[in-house]
Write a structure and sequence with these properties.
Blueprint (H helix, E strand, L loop, with lengths): L2 H18 L6 H44 L6 H95 L4
Length: 175
């Protein structure tokens, strides 16, 4: 590979460097990672709560439907009436309970949204720090590469002059 190609390779390396530089972890990184893990855990727990409430609703509705249909199987009117009254009370208690569960569930999403905002804000601060660090690294390496390219250009010029002198000496008569 000639000096010109090497010079071009260094110029290309400078461009690739922009996409490869890593920034050292900071206290902000650790805080973000911790809060993000906690946020993910809370999201999973929230989903579990919602799934549990849906399961309770499905089972309860199936139970009430079965209970209702079985009332007709009674032959004793008093027992049927008493069971029907129990069903009515159970449905009322269930309605209060499920309403309380749904109310508690509804409070989860605003809290998760606020939590997510904080995690995103930390993440974006990390992004800003990373960009600032990259800029500093880029400036330092850019200077080093510029000096190297300049030295290579001087070497190319000197080599070209030397080759030109050699070529002239070969072309001189009597040699």
């Amino acid at each position: 590979m000639g000096l010109r190609e090497t010079k071009n390779e260094f110029e290309d390396a400078l461009e690739r460097f922009k996409t490869l530089v890593c920034v050292n972890e900071t206290a902000l990184d650790h805080k973000y990672n911790l809060l993000n893990r906690q946020y993910q855990f809370c999201c999973a727990k929230s989903e579990a709560v919602s799934n549990r409430i849906r399961a309770i609703e499905q089972v309860s509705e199936a139970l009430f439907k079965e209970w209702e249909s079985e009332l007709n199987e009674y032959t004793n009117r008093n027992l049927r009436s008493h069971s029907k009254q129990q069903l009515k009370l159970a449905r009322q208690n269930y309605a209060r309970l499920i309403k309380s569960m749904q109310k508690a569930e509804a409070k989860i999403q605003p809290v998760l949204a606020a939590f997510k905002d904080q995690v995103l804000y930390l993440k974006h601060n990390l992004n800003a720090q990373a960009i600032a660090a990259l800029r500093h690294e880029f400036i330092e390496i850019g200077i080093d590469i510029s000096q190297l390219i300049h030295a290579m250009e001087q070497t190319i010029t000197e080599a070209s002059q030397f080759v030109a002198v050699l070529t002239e000496q070969k072309a001189l008569p009597g040699r």
